[in-house]
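Input/output pair, single chain:
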Amino acid sequence: SWQETANTIDSWCRFSVPIAFITYLWTLNGQDIGSLTKIQSSLGTQIALMMTPIWPMLIIGAVVFGMHIQQTRKMAKMKRKVGGEGAEVGSGWFRSYSMEQSAGHRDGMGQK
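Output:
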């Protein structure tokens, strides 16, 4: 559902953006005055410096996406093992929420 997708993106951003920012600051502060002056005249070097924070974000995103796919496959395997497509797998909020939905409630509060 869109909520799961939004939560995945939120988790990824809360973790990867600060790491990317720190990586960029670390790279920028590692430059000396001569390098910074040289960067001002070279568009290619400016682009390379600005792309520094993108790499950690891409790596973290790939790891999170891989973990999401692994979890989805594990849940599908559990569903097949328990008893088919309509079987309830898992516990906690999602299970109680889906049971309420099947009972005719529109939200988790029992309101229609």
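Residues 54-82 form the longest helix (29 residues). The chain has five helices and no strands.
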